[in-house]
Amino acid sequence: MSVRPSSDDQAHRAGFACFVGRPNAGKSTLTNALVGTKVAITSGRPQTTRHTVRGIVHRPDAQLVLVDTPGLHKPRTLLGERLNDLVRSTWGEVDVIGFCLPADQKLGPGDRYIAKELAEAKRTPKVAIVTKTDLVDSKTLAEQLIAIDRLGAELGIEWAQIVPVSAVSGKQVGLLADLLAPLLPEGPALYPDGDLTDEPEQVMVAELIREAALEGVRDELPHSIAVVVEEMLPREGRPADRPLLDIHANLYIERPSQKGIIIGPKGARLKEVGTKSRRHIEALLGTPVFLDLHVKVAKDWQRDPKQLRKLGF
Ligand SMILES: Nc1nc2c(ncn2[C@@H]2O[C@H](COP(=O)(O)OP(=O)(O)OP(=O)(O)O)[C@@H](O)[C@H]2O)c(=O)[nH]1
């Protein structure tokens, strides 16, 4: 296992990385652990990338921009296939892919499916990241490392590195950044260091909710969901060591008939969307959150310029 040789070891490097892995593999938590307290979130899609920036690791020697890619799913429809094509093209556009595999779960069909697809992204270096190492003993961890090594050999993937980390304890998170940095191309920083307003934070929060809302219904409602964060306010009267952030957000759909899909039987799906996005928002902002989520119909918002403006497009 080796890293790409450098023409000049002192040269500054900058580039894009994305984390892939099945749901709950620990991608968001790891992103936040890497970025640390200095959460540099940029809202829009800068010219350098079509993808949402999740966080930026600023180091003296390198700038690592972590971007989101849509999840890869077993395609059941033509649209599903198209979305997977999009994922694949993203993989060709980033400088390194981190494949997250939780230490506490044996490799399964979901991991294998992603790995097979990864094997096709031949030109992009791939780092296998064993996440949640705090949950297992060293024997289990060793077995997982061997299994991943074998999976790579079987599918013809040459891992640039295989790294065990714990985003929760922080163990080896710094090492992961050390290993990712040399895989980036030489170049100046792509983004300025720091300096951000609350507005992008709200946009990020809206995006996390939208992502959770789309999960599993992407094929049915691919572009019909918009989310607007109406308010983000610290709850009054809370003790200083137990803050709570109240977030009120509206989830807009285009037609009343889509309500059922979003809300689910007895509200189960909406509840899931709330729980999941709250987890991600808490990880992003580093504070407990109360999320108040409402579903509203904004008739044909995609075709109505007034609505589009209101929804921030
Ligand atoms: N013990 C432990 N738990 C972790 C660690 N990293 C993540 N988790 C937990 O694992 C769960 C999933 O983590 P996420 O970071 O949301 O996973 P994800 O891959 O972003 O999930 P999706 O958004 O569903 O794809 C959460 O409950 C995390 O708290 C870790 O290093 N150690």
UniProtKB/TrEMBL annotation:
Region (G3): 68-71
Any one of the GO BP annotations: ribosomal small subunit assembly
Residues noted as binding GTP in the record, renumbered to the chain: 21-28, 68-72, 131-134
Record-annotated Era-type G domain positions: 13-186
InterPro entries xref list: G_ERA_dom, GTP-bd, GTPase_Era-like, KH_dom-like_a/b, KH_dom_type_2, KH_sf_prok-type, P-loop_NTPase, Small_GTP-bd
Region described as G1: 21-28
Record membrane topology: Peripheral membrane protein
Cellular localization per UniProt: Cytoplasm; Cell membrane
Keyword set, alphabetical order: Cell membrane, Cytoplasm, GTP-binding, Membrane, Nucleotide-binding, Ribosome biogenesis, RNA-binding, rRNA-binding
Keyword Nucleotide-binding: yes
Annotated region described as G4, given as residue ranges: 131-134
UniProt keyword RNA-binding, yes or no: yes
Alphabetized SUPFAM superfamilies for the sequence: P-loop containing nucleoside triphosphate hydrolases, Prokaryotic type KH domain (KH-domain type II)
Residue intervals of the KH type-2 domain: 217-299
Region G2, residue ranges: 47-51
One Pfam match: KH_2
Entry GO CC: cytosol; plasma membrane
Subunit annotation: Monomer.
Family label: Belongs to the TRAFAC class TrmE-Era-EngA-EngB-Septin-like GTPase superfamily. Era GTPase family.
Known function: An essential GTPase that binds both GDP and GTP, with rapid nucleotide exchange. Plays a role in 16S rRNA processing and 30S ribosomal subunit biogenesis and possibly also in cell cycle regulation and energy metabolism.
PANTHER family noted in UniProt: GTPASE ERA (PTHR42698), GTPASE ERA, MITOCHONDRIAL (PTHR42698:SF1)
Protein's recorded name: GTPase Era
Species this protein is from: Wenjunlia tyrosinilytica
